[in-house]
From TrEMBL:
The lineage of its organism: Eukaryota, Viridiplantae, Streptophyta, Embryophyta, Tracheophyta. Keywords: Endoplasmic reticulum, Hydrolase, Membrane, Transmembrane, Transmembrane helix. The gene is LOC107012296. It is found in: Endoplasmic reticulum membrane. It comes from the Eukaryota. Its main location: endoplasmic reticulum. Pfam families: PAP2. CDD domains: PAP2_SPPase1. It comes from Solanum pennellii. The keyword RNA-binding does not apply. Residues 90-214 form the Phosphatidic acid phosphatase type 2/haloperoxidase domain. It is a multi-pass membrane protein. This is Lipid phosphate phosphatase delta. Belongs to the type 2 lipid phosphate phosphatase family.
Length: 404
């Protein structure tokens, strides 16, 4: 097992270095971007036809639906799964979400395909989260990709958990999932956020990721709960994935989203591995059972959510203090775009350095062209790892001491 871990990490590190040396991202982009961009333009009439039926009720419906499958929603929903006793489902969905976020955002920043042009397309961004999503590149549709993977995996879990072999129930569940995916896909076009090619790519990549995950998730789960060197392996993997990320033509929020969920996955894996036999084994009480009544579950939510928000705040404050100090002690020049005002750089310097956004591990070495490194990435990773750790370790400990 240890040899497999070492080979896996060495393989990722080697790929990162070679892809940088041979400019793999730029070569793939030069082949795919013109083709995808032409399809975005050619399918604009389809978007305009769908938007001809716009009214305030459809605006509200599709905007609300997009929030249901957004990253903030899953950030709130996944802790609820952990605390309701469905720990296996929660940790596997968390890792699947992190995988979807990484692959989807990597593809976005490799291809760098535009979203539908607005105008003539009417773009509706009802929330701050949607406004930030609009700053990303278009292909594939992350909402579509995530919905395919997470709803498909949830259906598989429900059918296996209930041990229901009835074909009718299985087909009914599949029909509900397909209908949900359809509404999400149509909604992304209706809101002007994606073109038809983005949706098709989201469906295709989502089905491929789901099929791959269903074939390996049991092995990954076994490794997390009972493997060797889990914490050290995942920490190094997490570090490598920060650099195994393509540099886009222009900076987007995609890398920030990846960093956040990368940190969440790290915190979940470390926390679950340390406390599996105490809080996350298959015999833990589940909600609506006599051992975990509805009032007790509501008490968990009242205690849990404020606690993880407090931990996130403290983790961020600690990282803002600790990481710059550590970098200074090691002689590493750092800068900050938003978290540490004293490390901010001038607008002109920032503009000249944006194109060299962190993306490859070679930037860590002496031949890097960067004058300084972005400390915000480490701060973001640390705060979300702390938040996730509190969900599966600190908060369950509080539940135990409060008899919840």
């Amino acid at each position: 097992m240890e040899s497999i871990q070492v080979l896996s990490l060495c393989g990722i590190g080697t790929w990162v270095i070679l892809s940088s040396i041979f400019n793999v991202t730029q070569k793939i982009r030069s082949l795919t971007q013109p083709w995808v961009s032409s399809y975005v333009v050619s399918t604009t009439p389809i978007t305009l036809k769908i938007q001809k039926y716009h009214n305030k009720y459809l605006d509200a419906f599709f905007s609300a639906l997009s929030c249901v499958v957004s990253v903030p929603f899953y950030t709130a929903f996944l802790p609820l799964l952990f605390w309701s006793g469905h720990c296996k489902l929660a940790r596997q969905m968390t890792l699947l979400m992190a995988l979807c976020d990484y692959i989807g955002n990597c593809i976005k920043d490799v291809v760098c395909a535009p979203r539908p042009s607005a105008p003539p397309v009417r773009r509706i961004t009802a929330t701050e989260d949607e406004k930030e999503n609009a700053l990303e590149y278009g292909l594939p549709s992350s909402h579509t990709l995530n919905t395919v993977c997470l709803s498909g995996f949830l259906l598989q879990y429900i059918l296996s958990y209930t041990q229901n072999d009835d074909v009718i129930n299985g087909l009914a569940g599949l029909a509900i999932v397909c209908l949900f995916i359809f509404f999400i896909a149509v909604g992304r076009i209706y809101l002007g956020m994606h073109s038809l090619i983005d949706i098709i790519a989201g469906l295709a990549f989502g089905l491929a990721i789901l099929a791959s995950w269903l074939s390996v998730h049991k092995y990954i789960d076994d490794f997390i709960v009972s493997g060797q060197n889990v914490a050290s392996f995942w920490a190094v993997l997490c570090f490598l994935l920060l650099f195994a990320y393509p540099t886009p033509q222009f900076p987007t929020p995609s890398f920030e989203f990846h960093t956040a969920f990368n940190g969440v996955a790290l915190g979940i894996v470390i926390g679950v591995h340390q406390t599996y036999h105490q809080f996350h084994h298959e015999s833990v009480p589940r909600v609506f059972n006599p051992q975990l009544t509805l009032p007790a579950f509501l008490g968990r939510l009242i205690v849990g959510y404020p606690t993880i928000l407090l931990v996130r705040f403290c983790s961020k404050a600690l990282a803002k203090w600790m990481l710059p100090m550590l970098a200074n002690a090691l002689g590493i020049p750092v800068r900050s775009s938003s978290y540490v005002p004293s490390l901010s750089i001038s607008a002109s310097a920032k503009k000249s350095d944006e194109i060299k956004q962190a993306g490859y591990i070679q930037k860590l070495f002496f031949f890097s062209r960067q004058d300084s490194f972005e400390v915000d990435t480490g701060i973001r990773l640390f705060q979300y790892a702390g938040l996730a750790w509190s969900v599966v370790d600190l908060v369950p400990s509080l539940f135990f001491h409060l008899s919840l």
